[in-house]
Amino acid sequence: MMRSKRAGCATIKSSTMIAEFKSPLHILEDSGVPTGSTDYTTVVLVHGFTWHSGTFKKLIPLAHSSNARVVLVNRGDYLGSKPLTETERALLPSIWAPGLQVDAGDAEDAEIAAAKEKLETFMAHRARELHDLLVELVQRGGVLKANHKNNKGGIIIAGWSLGGSFMNALLAHVASIPVGDVKLSDFMRRVVLLDTPVVPFGLSRTPKNTYSPMFDPSIAEEDRQRVFNSWVSGYYQHGDTLQGQPLLHPPPTISTLTPEEIASLTCEGPGAPGGSDEILMHSGARVGLFKSMRERALYLPGGDLVGDPWQKVEVRFVACENSIPSVYLVVKGLQEEIEEANVKGLPMRDVRIVRVQGANHFVRVVSSRGHRSCIMTRTDMYTVSPGSVGCTGENIAGFTWKRRCSV
């Protein structure tokens, strides 16, 4: 299958030989299996908005020393992947305009209801693509079954930033995907949402501390992506309250990269006006797509199932300490949802929350240690609980963190 260069994507030289896959998704890098290991973990990383999976390339030379095989995946319309077809693009209705409220889906509004149905179908297809890629990885060999007891082996799949919404889509739809020759649940160990902000995670936005240049009507449409990159790559020092302005030092990560480095790690087309990710982000927020996916993702389905719900698979939210404020709103909202589910006895998945110390949203560009440890280490090492009498540790925005990863 021929893989073409995507519009707005620079070519990147791979350090590894990649076998051709049937999937429309593209494996940009594969570290391969650690020599001599019988209990390594296969870590599959999926990128976010505009920045493709080349941004995780610092993890490739560290993979084997971490007893891991690391696989970097580019989504549709990004470097090396197949472009979305006209049929797939027809499932991306552009109904958002500056000033419109997000997460305001109204079932009585025919346009919004129709748009949401299309977008849900679009994300169901993306979930199936990810599922089938994982199946193909298993079929080709080099993937061990998951050992949940010892926290070894198996597959950990992680989606960074907007990529977290694709993790929610995978969890939301997996039980409707028929099980074929490969029972993927035997191999799946963890699904990670890496520093996913409040909108793509699926929590309703509130006026305070949820600013994003992507939703700012005062910024010209053609300038939003540039302003967004500087804003999202800043360092924010949160304390008792969340801070909406980044620190002057350290400077935003993007300002420390050369134009050539930025070009080699980004694909502007999907995030530009009319691009697939730009429409997904704005229209999805407008109709409440991300909220409905989150609700389906975090709870185990009931009734007669076509597929396997991955009942034993842990879901992990990783928050970076110096990231944008809306990531901490996810931490707060998710913790409250976990507690409510426990009180009501709802069938919630095994959801954990961890934090990377000293890292901003772009942790995988400037560092690798905390990134890989917070994805791979034992779940009971890093937890978060509401601040209360008897808790010890640092307090950030009303939460006392018992322990954290370090970069």
Oligomeric state of the chains present here: single chain
> How many strand units?
13
Give a short account of the largest sheet: 8 strands, mixed
Distance between the termini: 39 Å
> On the 0-100 scale, what is the average pLDDT?
84
The assigned structural class equals: alpha/beta
The helicity comes to 25-40%
Number of helices: 12
Global shape: globular
In terms of per-residue confidence, which ranges show pLDDT below 50 for 5 or more consecutive residues? 1-5, 379-393, 402-407
Q: What proportion of the residues form beta strands (DSSP E)?
A: 5-15%
Alpha carbon gyration radius:
20 Å
Q: Widest sheet: strand order?
A: 1-3-2-6-7-8-9-13
Order of helices and strands: EEEHHEEEHEHHHHHHEHEHHEEEE
Present the secondary structure layout.
Blueprint: E1 26-30, E2 41-46, E3 68-74, H1 86-89, H2 110-139, E4 146-147, E5 152-153, E6 155-160, H3 163-173, E7 188-194, H4 198-201, H5 224-232, H6 259-265, H7 268-271, H8 276-287, H9 289-297, E8 314-320, H10 325-344, E9 351-357, H11 363-366, H12 369-376, E10 384-386, E11 394-396, E12 399-401, E13 405-406
Parallel strand pairs: 2-3, 2-6, 6-7, 7-8, 8-9, 9-13
Antiparallel strand pairs: 1-3, 4-5, 10-12, 11-12
Helix pairs in contact: 2-3, 2-8, 3-9
